[in-house]
Design goal:
The structure is a homodimer of 411-residue chains. Chain A has helices at residues 59-70, 78-83, 85-93, 106-127, 131-137, 140-145, 158-167, 172-175, 178-181, 197-209, 224-238, 254-264, 281-291, 305-313, 330-342, 358-367, and strands at 8-16, 33-41, 48-54, 183-191, 214-218, 243-247, 271-273, 296-298, 319-320, 376-378, 392-393, 396-397. Chain A is of the alpha/beta class. Chain A is globular.
């Protein structure tokens, strides 16, 4: 391998208008899908691309935070950088002044996500490997060296992380079918909040006809009857065998969530997603106990591994919806996946990246960490903007073969 | 009262260099004390000033977020706005796109703090009253209407908030001595991380000679012996009767914090502050149980009332160090003060504002909410920059008498 040195950092503010009604939920009306993009330029070789999802007007804030945070990466050689990325990540995440604006949350953390993701993308391109392959080729010690495990040692020490990964090596072949057969998807794009009943029915019909075995409906309306009626309508449409996930997007208070979950239970939802405020660990814990055997999914707004550790320790989440465009990028995603594995909780990423990067990460989670196969969220609205859009056929993500993390956007 | 209409919003990026060694702690080296300032301009009347503390290079991000968030306030009359400020706050805090960058944390939340604080400042100036007086003149219903209590109803409903405030009215006279005698301060500026032993000893001597009955020392060094030696040195200097607080500024892992607390116990610290990561509710809960009767203070990095609710419900904080320049401003400070009162926890603000605004708020907490008198942090480093710097005499904050929230800075 030649030497690939980061020569400069650039950012892009990319915004993509959505079709009327698409992308909205109970709390995020009229979104743009927008990305704050970090670009790591090298001399003649590949360029690293990473991004964080924003929903529009805040994108320049994240871009400026990228500029402020990423400056120390200029001049770094990518192999040398990634050999101890956990240390670099720790230094970036704990910038002596910018840390005050978090710590490890909000605009600055989104910027860190974009930067980290660009580093992993550049690394995989420099090696000429798809990201999933690169990650699977690493030794347990090399994987642990990618991670910043500070503040987690009451659940996971570096030694324990390395041991966990090493223990999974003998059984990797049993789990490698996924590298041939692909990873199942589920379709979020059927049930946006702004869709009419007729639109939802039509999208559900198309989605199940296309082979998806799981669909998601947005709930969290001010009108509980509306939610119950729509959920029943979708359950009727798909029958008892298709998994139905219900997503309240944080709209309920704790007492409301208790009531709504009880009323939705007969529809046998596979999970209830974001029932209330995503910082409310104890509320999720109380809900998880009260609504069992219904299960709670949460994570798209949980910004760092310390908060995920708390949710996991509290038994407050059944499905870990970590998103590498919300936490500090690919490496913190892997950290959270390890925490989840310690506690036997499945990781089902939220895909702020539309699944582009996560299609790599779920393969690593399955083969290297021994996570069970779940399904990966699929949102097709931006596929024409990606250079290498994820290929989903018959409801299954195909395996990306091109170098990198599939994050490049058309100019 | 005449009509005071907000005509335009302006922002200022104000940075103040500190003397060598001052202001630093185990994690924030070389700080600037910097403010992102929100200014609410009116036609001919007063101008509202509010700010959030930043530590330097991130200030423009917060200023831009103020511009994005505050636009809906233009054209609003201040009395009409404040009559239902809780609703306006809820709308600003849940901006349909900017919310994604939090929610309710990080850069966007700091911007909300500055905006909210400017609204309260303008309101008090328009009425010609110091903020503490304005707040004490409100009815319980008017106070509750200032607050956004969403997501808190498992601990505090609006009805319960109003009732709590109303119940305290008959006993207000018993607690009103503080409005004459002033509110005790404590001195943070004696024990900065970067100070030499000789500097610490000299500052401690001056501080106790000036009448302070409590001092704070920064710990959290990589060298545990250094921390233990310095803490013992300060305890020796001040004797057994002065309160000594120790502040680790998040530097310890949970096992480290357990060890250090056990070793520091013989020095009888009044509290241990920020022993570990401020998002780690369960770690603080475990620590609080393990180190009792030592007590835990935390809050300067806790960004919103939902997280404070969790800390309080978990028994994870003994002293509630909410800061109106970190949470969404004065109104969310009051919300957290109510939550703390429900649970019998004292509020001892962290003073990102150097005590300027909080000197008003602790009077309200004492008289209207029935909180016990503790002491208010005092940091003198910026006093020459404030138009009306807090007057601390013999270790006691005097009562501000001028209209507003004491937040104006010299041009």
């Amino acid at each position: 391998m030649g030497s690939t040195v980061i020569r400069s950092i650039a950012t892009q503010d990319r915004r993509f208008a959505l079709a009327p009604g698409a992308g909205g939920d109970a709390i995020h009306r009229d979104p743009y899908y927008a990305y704050a993009v970090a670009l790591l330029n090298t001399d003649a070789g590949p360029r690293g691309t990473g991004f964080a999802l924003t929903l529009g007007p805040g994108t320049p804030l994240v871009c400026q935070a990228i500029d402020l945070l990423a400056a120390p990466l200029v001049g770094r050689e990518i192999e040398e950088l990634m050999a101890s990325f956990g240390q670099t990540f720790n230094a970036l995440a704990n910038h002596p002044q910018l840390r005050w604006l978090g710590p490890h949350k909000g605009v600055v953390q989104l910027a860190l996500a974009a930067i980290t993701n660009a580093c992993f993308d550049l690394w995989a391109k420099a090696r000429g490997l798809p990201l999933w392959r690169l990650l699977l080729d690493l030794t347990p010690e090399q994987i642990t060296a990618l991670l910043d495990l500070r503040y987690l040692d009451d659940l996971l020490t570096p030694q324990a992380a390395t041991a966990l990964i090493a223990e999974q090596i003998p059984s990797r072949p049993e789990r490698s079918a996924v590298l041939r057969d692909g990873y199942p998807g589920y379709d979020t794009s059927v049930g946006w909040f702004g869709y009419s009943d007729a639109q939802v029915r039509e999208h559900v019909r198309r989605s199940t006809a296309a082979g998806f075995g799981a669909v998601k409906l947005k709930v969290g309306s001010a009108d509980a009857e509306h939610d119950l009626r729509r959920a029943a309508m979708v359950r009727d449409s798909v029958g008892p065998d298709v998994k139905l996930m219900l997503d309240a997007n944080q709209q309920w208070s704790v007492p409301q969530a208790m009531r709504m979950c009880a009323q939705l239970q007969p529809l046998n939802p596979y999970w209830i997603e974001e029932p209330t405020h995503p910082d409310d660990i104890l509320a999720h814990q109380a809900l998880a106990r009260a609504v069992a055997p219904m299960r709670i999914a949460v994570g798209e707004h949980i910004p760092n591994s310390v908060l995920f550790k708390n949710f996991i320790q509290a038994g407050a989440m059944h499905f870990v919806q970590v998103d590498c465009t919300r936490v500090g990028g690919v490496s913190e995603f892997l950290t959270v996946s390890l925490l989840a594995r310690c506690a036997g909780r499945p990781v089902v990423p939220h895909v702020g990246d539309m699944g582009q990067i996560h299609q790599h990460l779920v393969l690593f989670n399955r083969v290297a960490l021994g996570h069970e196969v779940q399904f990966l969220e699929y949102i097709p609205h931006l596929r024409q903007h990606f250079v290498l859009p994820a290929q989903v056929e018959h409801g299954v993500y195909r395996i990306p073969q091109e170098p990198g993390s599939s994050a490049d956007l058309h100019a």
